[in-house]
Every structure is written in structure tokens, then in C-alpha cells.
Amino acid sequence: MALLEIKKLSKHFGGLAAVDKVDMEIREGEILGLVGPNGAGKTTLFNLITGFFRPTRGKVIFKEDDITGLKPNQIAEKGIVRTFQASNALFQQRTVWGNVLIACHLQFKAGFLRVLLNTPFARQEEEEIRRKALEVIEIMGLSSVKNEYAQNLPHGHQRMLGVCLALAANPELLLLDEPVTGLTAEETSTFMGRVRELRDKGITVLLVEHNMRAVMGTCDRIVVLNYGKKIAEGSPQEIRKNEDVIEAYLGVEADAT
Amino acid sequence: MPLAQIFLNALLLTMLYALVSSGLTLVLGIARIVNFAHGALYMLGGYIVYYVFQEAGLPFVAALVLAVLGMGLFGIFLDKLLFRRLTGQFFAAVIVCLGLVFLIEGGAAMIFTEKQQSLPSFVSGTVHIFGATLGTERIVVIVAGAIVMLGLFYFINRTKPGAAMRAMAQDSEAAALQGIDFNYTSALAMGIGCGLAGFAGGILAPVYGVVDPYMGQAIMFKAILVITLGGFGSVPGAFIAALLIGLVESFGSWYIGQWVSAVLFGIVIVLLLVRPRGILGVEYIMRH
Amino acid sequence: MRMKVTFGLFFLALLVSGPILRNEPYWMHVVIICIYSSILAMSWLLILRIGHLSLAHAAFMGIGGISSALLVMEAGLSFWLALPLAGLIAAVIALVLGFPILRVKGIYFLIITFAFNELIVIVIRNWKFLGGYVGLIDVPRPDAIGGIDFSSKVHYYYLILFLMAVTVIVLYRIYSSRIGRIFTSIGEDEDLAQSVGINVQRYKLLAFAIGCFFAGLTGSFVVHYLNFSGAELFITWQSLNIQIYAIVGGMGYGIGGPIVGAFFLTLLTQFLDIPIKAQPLVYAAILILVIFFLRGGLITLPQKVSAGIARLSKLWVRGPNHGTA
User: What is the CATH number of the domain that holds A178?
Assistant: First the structure.
């Protein structure tokens, strides 16, 4: 069943089409890989889905709901949460724990006045959510560093924290933007293992990545973009043999397995 | 016939605003800082001319050259001492520049006293054009201003250092890759930008006839309006905007007097909300 | 943490007992200025927390002040009604203005608030009803309640102290709660905050409205205290003044910083007998020095000093060559 449908989605900057009439769908419970050479439009597509860009044309439909043009926080509320490419997309001055607590925002129900007056309801909720935050930290294996400042973490942990933040927002669909860039082979495989664990827990994942090995090994299906257009779609085996894809990656072949 | 009078007055304002604003926008493009103290440099330029021309009795041109050089060097000094240390720190840079205004004005008030000082024009006589009567110095300023602006355009568009400045303003990373000497280009840009402020202050002091420590404030506001309208970082944009603002202000104060300032402030606000890019500016990215 | 609380209580005790210890109008006047300046600085800092540097804080003070004066003088309301209304009016205008302007980036927001402050000043100066060039004179004192008729400075003193207490309590609750976390996260990284579901626009408006509410409240106090409301009280330089208090005191501490800054600078001006004309110069010089050498503000000074002493004493005990191979 299609969780997310993208219909003829386009984004133009000036005269340039960064994303050009893309049609695709993400099925519930799958890990979908989005690949393509640099500048193919992958991050733009992300931005379009999550509301950071307004599409020039086309629609994004999530669970039968048209979410085109909604603001990022509204889309997060609906259940689509993303990570950011730059590993410094964290609240640098806070600890791991502080970061995750903020990200739990959507789980809070108490309104402004209740919080201000420190009512029992607000206090109770705060405690509950603090516990949930600790759980999320454990799931991603960051318990040992939970009191470290985000800016002091090593790369691998920073990436995990980014995913942690996204998880704390209770997503049904998780969008990971190049999460393993710059990680060692070992860190990458640990990370990918966790992604599979998340899928097993019921979260659908859209993964943008350059690292072909990681993508081939983890994804159920792959969509390939080039110059803003979708040029191929299918299982990892099919994609590996696809001529258009190979041509697009000519020169980048050395990186692929 | 007031029409010609108003129009010529507008031209004078245009030159004033164009000179000050292109300096400001130049500095903005390079140091990525809106130097709120730019108006104070205009004021100091005026005072240099006051002391050298009026008090010391030296020829006006000498005084003007000193104003330009003085402010140019001061600008480079400010850049090296302060602005360089604040790259990437938006709030700190803003606060420092705002603080600088009061530092410089306060210092001027203490050293030069708060009183307005008067100085005579550098050339006497009046000119009659199209039925309007203007002091000769105003015509001189208009012409001199135009020449300086033309020189600036030529420099920015036709010379290597100018091209380097444009490259730095648009994309400093790409510029670095092209091997542009940042230190030299920055210093040059700061020197020229602040020198322009000094020039404007110096040449207009005798025209308005007075200098006081706070005369930079009104200019500063207009300069911000101009670079906003023209587009942050764009010198030709600044010129066009200066022309528009000069016309609005000149005609406006004739017909609605004091309220023209309010109108101008309102225009800035609306402008920034609707099209912060301005006429010709490229909305550059403020990197954190 | 305990240090902060004890020091805070001690400071509070000092303030409360001030007029009793030294019942002298001049000093009460100075401390009153310190107190309302700290309210302004604290409320301004709240707006900075969400990532916006506002140069319009003095204008909102003016909106509150003039509203209050007019409500009392023209509409015949009691001061005690006009005071909160002044704050509310300022808050409402902040909401209306904030709606479009909080969406734009830092530098544009700055210029807009600057332009707004200037605009308000021009409007005040050119409209007789709001005071014109002369201003509103004979703004009445607060209505008498109980035996307090505001004929003496002491009455004003305790009124403003009360207002400061209210401000501190509200801000304390905000900063120590989830709301405060949300505000600061917006200031740190708006996009990230959005992506975890925070409605950035709504919270920005909230912070802006609260900040301007307290500015308006203070404005009301000031005009009824000075019995005067003139444009010169609300000029853009005042906005900058407010910033200087907060920054010199310490931007990192939402309540303590502005209080330290406001008290320090105001008292400094008194102690050193700095002429009004030199005040901007002195304040600006201190501001720039703080930005370059003590970014955290004066409030971090004890911390830095004790850290420095600790390091020095370690050196003294071990000797400079200890530990080298």
C-alpha cells in the first residue's frame, strides 16, 4: 500500500528545473533508496516532501491526504520527519539528552498556560516524556553519551543523534538525508543495521545516499534521479543492471560496488 | 518655477545618497556586515574638511583629499581591528557597529563640541538653470558626484580588482578558489567604501554650511533605505535607488513636508517584507 | 545553582529594604531607573532568545506609555486599569506587526524594527494628540489606593519593584519550562525546530508579544512616574540602550544578565558622575569591550575570576615545571 505518493512533482529555480515531473511512491514498511549523481535533485525532493520548499507544480499525497505546500512543522505532525545532510544540524549547545527532549515536542499536550502555571498535569507529562526521551536514546545506542554536548560528539554519534531527533518526533515515514556520508565502513554497517531495526518496528524509510554498498544492501527498492528526472526504479538487482543508471554514474562507477 | 528647483535638489540628494550608499554596499558585499557606523564616517569627513579648509585655511581640494584618505584608512583600520574578528557572528557584528556609532559620535561630541560649526562654501556665486537658482557649489557637487560614480562603475566593472570585489561579494568560496587575494581586495574595498563616505561628507559640508557630530544619523538611515531598495551588495542598484529616493524626498518634502520621512520609513518596512532582494540585489546567504 | 538563589534573595532583600535604609529621593530615583531599565532589558532579551534582535523596544515602551496616558487623561480610566491595558495594547500591536516581520531574516528584521521605531517617533512628534513635539505634560499620578497617594518616591519605588517581581516570576517560569526550551531552540536552529514539529511562527509571536507586553507596561509606569510623555523617551537610542544593558550584563542569563547590566551601567553613570552627553560614548565603549573580551557579560565575571584563581593556585602548588618529562 502506498504510504506516500508523489505526482508530477516539479521545482523550478529561475529557469532551472531541479526536480522535473517526478512520479513515485513509497510503500508502507519498505526501505526505499533514492540515489543519483550530485545535483540530481535528491535533497530538493526531500525539501519538497517535508515542506521546506514549495513545489512549482505537482502534488505530494500522504495516506490519501494532500500535504502539498504545508509547512514543515505541520508535515512533521502528520508523521513525516527528516534528518538534515549537514551533521551540524543539531542543537549544538545542548547535550544529547537536551536535543532529544526538544525533539519530543510533538508528544506534549499541555498548553502554554498550563506549563506556565506548572500544573500537576504539565509536570506529570514532562516526567513521562523525559522517560520516553531516554528510551529513544537507548534505541539508537547513545545512552553512554547522553550528557555530552552535541558539538563534542564524534561524527558517527552526531549522525545517530540526528536520527534520534527525527525518531523522537514519532514518524511513520522517516527521511534520511545522506546519513552515512563520512562514516567508516564499520559505523556504516552499524547504522544500516539500526535502520533495518527501525523498519522492523514499523517505520517506513526513505533513504538518500551516495554510498552504493549501503544502499544496495539495505534497500528494498531504489529510485534513481538524474537532472531532476526519475530515470529508473526497481529492486537493487534490477538497478545494478540498468543501462541508464550506469551511464548516469559513468565516472562515479569507481565508488559503486 | 519650483519644478526645476525641486528636481535639481533631488539630483543633489541623489549624489549624496549614491556616494554614501555605494560605499556602504561595497563594504557590505566584502565584510558581510551592514556597517551602521558608515554615517559616522560621513560626519568625520565633514569635520576633516571643516578643520582643514575652514580653520587651517588650506585649499578645499586638499581638505577633500585628506577627508577621503583619512576615512579610507580609518575604514581599513576598523576592518582589521574589528570586522575581521566578527566574521560569521551576525549579532555580535551588528551590536559592535551600532556601538561604534555612539562611540564615534560621542567622541566627536567631546572633541569637537556638540555645537554646530559653520563653514563657508568653497565657491561663490549662483547659477541659473531652467528657471531655478542654485548655489554654484551645488552644481559642482552634482557634477563631481557623477564623475566619482562613473569612476566607481568603471573600476568595479572594468578593472581586475573591481572584478575581484564582485566575485568576493557574490560567492566568497568560489572567489577563494579563483585565487583572489582576500586581504588585498578587502582592504581595497574597505578603503574605497569608507573613502566614499568621507568624500560625501567632505564635499557636502560646505554646501549645507554646517557640521555637527550627529549629522551622520539621518544620512545613515537614508543609506540603509537606499541599499535595501537597490539590493544589498549592488552598486548600480544603489545608484538607481538613490535616484528614486532623492526624487521621492525632494518632491515629497515640498508637498507633504515632515511626513515624508514617515513615508520613507514605511516604504522600507514594506519593501523588506515584500522584496528584500531589492531592485538589483542578489539575496546573499548569511552564513552562520 | 544555590549560589544564584542565595545571591538573588540577598539582592531582593536589599532592594526591598532600600528605601528604609536610605530614605533619600535622589537615590530612590536612581534605583527606580535601574529597576525599570532591567525590566526593559529582560523583556528585550526574551525576543533575542528566539533569534531576533529588535530595535523597536523603545517604541513599544512608547506605545504603552502613551496609551496609558491617554486612557487616563482622555478616557478617564483609573491608572490601575490603564497599566495592564497599556501592556496589552503593546502586545496586540506586537502581534499584528510580528505576523509579517517575524518571518524575515535577522538583518531585515533588524532594519524593519529600526524603521518602525523611527516611524513611531515621527508619528508621535507630528500628531498633537499623541503629544507632538512638546509631549504630553501633566500626566497624572497613579490613583491613590489605601493610604498610598504616590506623593512620595517611595510609593513609586515599591510599585516598580512589584512590577519587576512579576516580570522575573513570569520569565523564570518560562525559561525553566518547556516553553523556554522551545524559544531557545528556535533561536538556535529554526529549520531543525520546524522539522521536529515546532510551530515556529506561533512561538515567535508569543515571545515577541510577551516581550513587548512588558515594554508597554514599563512605558505606562514611566510616564505616570515622570508625569510626562514625550517622544524623546522612546527614541531608537533608547532601544540600543536597552540592548547594552542586556549584553553588558550577560546575554546568556535571561534574568540575571539584564539586571546586572542595568544596575551596573546606571549606577556607574551616577558614581562617576558621567555627564549625560558622554553617556553614549561610555556605554558604547563598554559594550564593545565586553563583546570582544568578555562575551558572556559581566555576570560571568565571578566565574571567570574564580576559574582563573583556581588555575593560578594549581600552578603555584605544583610549580610550572611539574609534569614535564
Answer: 3.40.50.300
Nearest residue on chain A to C192, alpha-carbon basis = A89
Given CA atoms B26, B28, B30, B35 in this order, what sign does their dihedral have? positive
Beta partners for residue C83, in sequence order: none
With CA atoms as reference, report the closest residue to C209 among C54, C105, C68. Answer: C54
Domains and their CATH numbers in chain B: 2-274 (1.10.3470)
- DSSP 8-state class, residue A149: B
- Does residue C312 belong to any structural domain of this protein? no
Is C113 domain-assigned? yes
Walk along chain B (288 residues) in steps of 10 and give the mean pLDDT of each run.
Answer: 82 94 90 89 94 86 93 93 84 90 90 84 80 84 92 89 82 73 85 95 90 90 89 87 92 83 86 79 44
Alpha-carbon distance of A47 to C191, in angstroms, equals 11
Q: Does A105 touch chain C (CB under 8 A)?
A: yes
ipTM value of the model? 0.85
Number of CB pairs, chain B paired with chain C, less than 8 A apart? 104
Centre a 10 Å sphere on the Cβ of residue C268 and count the other Cβ atoms it contains: 15
Residue A161 in any domain: the answer is: no
- Is residue A190, in this structure, part of any structural domain at all? yes
The tens digit of pLDDT for each residue in C128-182 reads 899 888 889 888 888 888 778 888 888 999 999 999 999 999 999 999 888 999 9
Q: Indicate yes or no: CB of C118 within 8 angstroms of CB of B99.
A: no
Cell numbers at C143, concatenated = 490613583
Question: pTM for this structure?
Answer: 0.89
- Domain total in chain C: 1
Indicate left, alpha or beta for C249 from its phi (over 0: left) and psi (-120 to 50: alpha): alpha
- If one counts the domains in chain A, the total is 1
Q: How far is A65 from chain C (nearest CA, A)?
A: 18
CA-nearest residue to B91 within chain C is C53
Quick one: cell of C153?
Answer: 518616591
**C287 — contact with chain B (CB < 8 Å)?**
yes
Q: What is the span of the domain harbouring residue C123?
A: 9-233
Domain that holds residue A189: 2-79+171-248
Query: C196, A168: Cβ pair inside 8 Å?
Result: yes
Task: Note whether residue C139 is domain-resident.
Answer: yes
Q: What is the pLDDT of residues C42-86, one digit of tens each?
A: 999 999 999 999 999 999 999 999 999 999 999 999 999 999 999
For residue B217, the chain C residues in CB contact (below 8 A) are none
Nearest by CB: C291 against B95, B258, B269: B95
